[in-house]
Specification:
By secondary structure, the chain is of the alpha/beta class. It folds into 3 domains: 33 residues; 209 residues, no CATH class; 196 residues, no CATH class. It is 34% helix and 14% strand.
């Protein structure tokens, strides 16, 4: 037997020397195969939470799939003849909060008026204030699903984008009871006021308070023909003055691209198959004045505290209720019931986002586990690492999840966090967002945060709650170099004004 082993060993030794390269390659392939099998096993069996979260493409309002709208009931209170028409004689038009009459935009508040929290006092609720263009409106359902408080939504509706907005809102308001939390406000450029395309014969919306009910296209055609028939310059001058007195704008066909009538087709309450609907704004490459929307939504809030957030950020479970409980505990019943607020103090909500194919976590324990497994990260970590990396991030992740909201630390928006753009619970005492800055140009929140630094605000970072963004395919997620240049120029002008208005604070990094 011993001799047999020696013969086999000698043979294998000679074979290994002769075919060493082949054996090494085979061994390498075998090792890789074993490692991959172990990885697959760990992924499917090592983390039971992965099965609970699941792999899917995030879609707002997917929980309403297969539900059909109620034909006889709407959960929303529409004003001004909406959603089928717009009665300008009932509308009161406002200017944006920051720029006022100097603004080229106008505002209509409470096109839809919330009813669910109308009997709550200003200190018994907290508002989620946000803004959107029509193609993002469906995200509001996810906020309404989890936010225990009123929601203030400002939508940008130049021209027929109001019609698209009303189609979507009318559908949602007949589908989901949570829509009764939402107040909808409209903002638009002065020269492109909102219009309703359906029914075809409607009030002439270029002229607020007009009672004319002729077809708009016919009106414009008649006015142009009348103008062409005028021969001498004096008569033409008189005609122009008459047009101005009647407040009728002669809109030539070449001024704007032909806007196709958009009919949003809904499969069920979960929304259209494609949310990327054509809009007047996109067809005509109009910039989006995001800060006008933020200020309008904030201005419309009727509660002492609100959070000005983005429409794609979903709150964790109980965030609104936890915040109100925390404020009452910190302030005391007497001061809180008297409507008192903290001066120059805001409460920062941590922001996170999940990787593609992951569901938004509902609690901190799940979120922290996802971060440790590289399935979630703090918001904009890859595209703007300084924007949302808040002080104490690692401490926040390592702390046990509290059952309530509580202050973790107090910071200032100073170096090395001088480019931080937190989302926070605040009040109407805070500076406005600069309405000169647009979404396409970026840095749209920087000037407000810089002004808060110059005013020496305290930033209280909260534990026990968060906002989270799903990994979705961004619609129109491109920025414009020309608009970035415009924003930068406006940014420098705003900074120059701050230098005259405030005492210099080097840590704020005013340049």
């Amino acid at each position: 037997m011993t001799k047999c082993y020696r013969i086999c060993g000698a043979y294998l030794f000679r074979l290994s020397r002769k075919h060493s390269t082949v054996l090494l390659i085979a061994l390498f392939i075998l090792s890789i195969t074993v490692i991959l099998h172990l990885f697959v096993y760990k992924k499917h069996h090592g983390h039971p939470s992965a099965l609970r979260i699941g792999d899917f493409d995030y879609r707002p309002a997917s929980f309403l799939k297969n539900k059909q709208p109620n034909d006889n009931q709407s959960y929303c209170h529409f004003n001004y003849g909406l959603p089928t028409t717009l009665k300008w004689n009932e509308v009161k038009i406002f200017t944006p909060p920051e720029t006022g009459k100097n603004s080229s935009y106008r505002v209509i508040y409470n096109a839809i008026q919330a009813t669910y929290y109308e009997n709550k006092s200003s200190y018994e609720a907290v508002t989620y204030a946000t803004q959107a263009t029509p193609e993002f409106i469906y995200h509001i359902v996810e906020i309404a699903r989890y936010w225990e408080g009123p929601i203030s939504l400002a939508v940008f509706v130049p021209n027929y984008d109001l019609d698209v907005t009303m189609q979507i809102m009318n559908q949602l308001c007949r589908c989901y009871a949570g829509m009764s939390k939402i107040s909808l406000h409209l903002f638009y450029p002065k020269k492109y006021p909102p219009r309703i395309r359906r029914p075809r014969k409607i009030a002439t919306t270029e002229i607020p308070n007009s009672s004319t009910t002729q077809n708009i296209d016919d009106i414009l055609r008649v006015k142009r023909e009348r103008y062409r028939r005028v021969n001498d310059m004096q008569s033409r001058s008189e005609y122009i003055q008459w047009v101005r007195r009647k407040r009728i704008h002669m809109m030539m066909a070449r001024t704007l691209k032909k806007y196709p009538e958009t009919t949003v087709s809904f499969v069920d309450c979960s929304g259209p198959e494609n949310f990327d609907v054509p809009t007047f704004r996109r067809e005509n490459n109009m910039k989006y004045p995001i800060n006008v929307g933020r200020n309008v939504a904030r201005m419309a809030s009727r509660t002492n505290y609100f959070v000005v957030s983005d429409i794609e950020l979903v709150p964790s479970d109980g965030l609104a209720t936890k915040f109100l409980t925390m404020v009452r505990k910190l302030m005391g019943d007497k001061k809180r019931d008297g409507g008192r607020i903290f001066v120059k103090t805001v409460f920062v909500v941590p922001l996170f986002e999940v990787e593609r194919g992951e569901a938004i976590p509902r609690d901190k324990d799940t979120l922290v586990r996802m971060v440790s497994e590289n399935r979630a990260k703090y918001f904009h970590q890859k595209v703007c690492s300084h924007c949302q990396r808040f002080p104490g991030l690692q401490s926040w992740l390592s702390r046990p999840a509290p059952a309530v909201a509580e202050p973790m630390l107090i910071a200032r928006r100073e170096y090395p966090y001088h480019r931080w753009e937190p989302i926070y619970f605040g009040t109407q005492n805070e500076p406005w967002y600069s309405e000169a800055l647009t979404w396409e140009g970026r840095q749209d929140k920087m000037t407000q945060m810089l002004e808060m630094c110059l005013q020496q605000y305290h930033m209280v970072v909260l534990d026990g709650g968060f906002l989270c963004h799903a990994a979705t395919t961004r619609l129109n997620a491109t920025h414009n170099r020309q608009e970035e240049s415009n924003n930068h120029r406006k940014y420098l002008n705003i900074i120059a004004a701050f230098k005259h208005k405030y005492k210099d604070r080097p840590k704020c990094k005013v340049k």
